[in-house]
């Protein structure tokens, strides 16, 4: 195994946290994020750098010799992208252009983090070769970034994680699991949709799979997901069960109850054969992932 430096852009996000927690011994991680906060972390060095700033990105690559770049930074909230498209274009598309250009010149292995949102959700389950047809602006931007990577780089992998859950870094946005958990712990009633399906991915498994790709310098496209295909109501009920909370607070609704948010593809669940066979990571059941979260709880339940 190589022991060089790996750059993770957006390393304080949920995916970056999963990578940090599963990092092989001896690997040096440089992680960047955009907002000005300090991170206590004995597994990675963290710096503040906005990837929209081409000169700063170029400077970073001039002063380091990266073996691989895992590019996860960007605006990952589907609804934020829908409402703030100009800002999202800069972060997600211009930022990706800056990072891919610097990586190409440096000749490092590039891992682009895409999403299940590149699919329209009408022909699940999706294998890596399925045709892209995003239904919202976030998905369209990610599909465009995939094309940018494919057309400008040689040594790359495209990784599409599906809806992720796990303990996020406290400074970063909550994910569906931590959001539901906090609401149920406060005894608040919540509406969850029963017509959007995914096979949710535990961020720790995401990290394990990504390290296989980085360590073995793999190329191609990989779908990462968990074992169970569920809608958000089923996700919420499993969270309630695992953490011993009141599932009666969950009110099932359809997506029509949220007319103001971006369209969601109805079922983007993934085929995980490549993840299992080529990466050697067997997707775990939702119950197991949530059980692991509970065992490593950062909050008292
Ligand atoms: N979470 C999911 O369910 C999911 C599912 C499928 C695909 N993905 C993809 O996985 C990747 C990571 O998602 P995530 O959920 O881990 O993200 P996240 O928790 O929202 O974190 C985003 C990260 O990107 C950084 N970032 C944003 N704009 C930046 C900029 N202009 N310059 C530098 N850093 C910037 C953020 O830094 P600050 O904290 O400083 O803002 C943060 O570290 C994304 O590409 C997303 O599209 C996520």
Q: How is this fold's topology laid out?
A:
Layout: E1 5-9, H1 14-21, E2 28-33, E3 45-48, H2 54-62, E4 66-71, H3 78-83, H4 85-106, E5 109-113, H5 137-152, E6 156-161, E7 164-165, H6 176-185, E8 190-193, E9 197-198, E10 201-202, H7 203-215, E11 220-224, E12 230-231, H8 232-243, E13 250-253, H9 273-277, H10 286-295
Parallel strand pairs: 1-2, 1-4, 2-3, 4-5, 5-6, 6-11, 7-10, 8-13
Antiparallel strand pairs: 9-12
The protein binds NADP nicotinamide-adenine-dinucleotide phosphate.
Q: How much strand?
A: 15-25%
What assembly state would you assign to the polypeptide chains in this entry? single chain
What is the straight-line distance between the termini? 39 Å
Low-confidence stretches: none
The DSSP helix count reads 10
What would the principal axes of the Cα set say about the shape?
Answer: globular
- Classify the fold: give the CATH topology of the domain at 5-165 and 201-228 and 268-285: Rossmann fold
Name the helicity range. Answer: 25-40%
SSE pattern, N- to C-terminal: EHEEHEHHEHEEHEEEHEEHEHH
> What is the name of the CATH superfamily of the domain at 5-165 and 201-228 and 268-285?
NAD(P)-binding Rossmann-like Domain
| CATH structural architecture of the domain at 5-165 and 201-228 and 268-285 | 3-Layer(aba) Sandwich
What is the CATH domain class of the domain at 5-165 and 201-228 and 268-285?
Alpha Beta
**Quick check: average pLDDT?**
96
How does the helix and strand content classify structurally?
A: alpha/beta
Strands in their spatial order, largest beta sheet: 3-2-1-4-5-6-11
Q: Which molecules other than protein and nucleic acid are bound?
A: NADP nicotinamide-adenine-dinucleotide phosphate
């Amino acid at each position: 195994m190589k022991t060089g430096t790996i750059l993770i852009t957006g390393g304080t996000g949920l995916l970056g946290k999963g990578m940090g927690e599963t990092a092989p011994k001896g690997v040096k991680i440089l992680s960047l994020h955009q907002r000005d906060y300090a991170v206590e972390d004995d597994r990675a060095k963290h710096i503040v750098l906005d990837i929209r700033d081409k000169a700063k990105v170029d400077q970073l690559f001039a002063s380091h010799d990266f073996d691989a770049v895992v590019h996860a930074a960007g605006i990952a909230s589907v609804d934020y992208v829908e409402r703030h498209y100009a800002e999202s274009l800069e972060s997600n598309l211009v930022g990706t252009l800056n990072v891919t250009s610097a990586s190409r010149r440096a000749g490092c292995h590039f891992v682009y983090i895409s999403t299940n949102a590149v699919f329209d959700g009408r022909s699940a389950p999706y294998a890596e070769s399925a045709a892209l047809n995003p239904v919202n602006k976030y998905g369209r931007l990610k599909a465009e970034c995939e094309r940018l990577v494919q057309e400008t780089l040689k040594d790359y992998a495209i990784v599409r994680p599906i809806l992720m859950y796990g303990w996020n870094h406290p400074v970063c946005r909550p994910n569906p699991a931590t959001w539901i958990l906090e609401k149920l712990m406060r005894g608040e009633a919540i509406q969850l949709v029963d017509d959007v399906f995914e096979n949710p991915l535990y961020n720790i498994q995401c990290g394990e799979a990504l390290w296989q790709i980085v360590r073995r310098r793999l190329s191609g496209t990989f779908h990462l997901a968990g074992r169970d295909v569920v809608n958000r109501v089923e996700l919420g009920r499993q969270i309630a069960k695992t953490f011993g909370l009141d599932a009666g607070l969950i009110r099932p609704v359809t997506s029509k109850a949220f007319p103001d948010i971006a369209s969601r593809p109805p079922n983007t669940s993934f085929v995980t054969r490549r993840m299992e066979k080529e990466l050697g990571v067997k997707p775990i059941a939702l119950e197991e992932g949530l059980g692991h979260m509970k065992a490593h709880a950062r909050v008292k339940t």
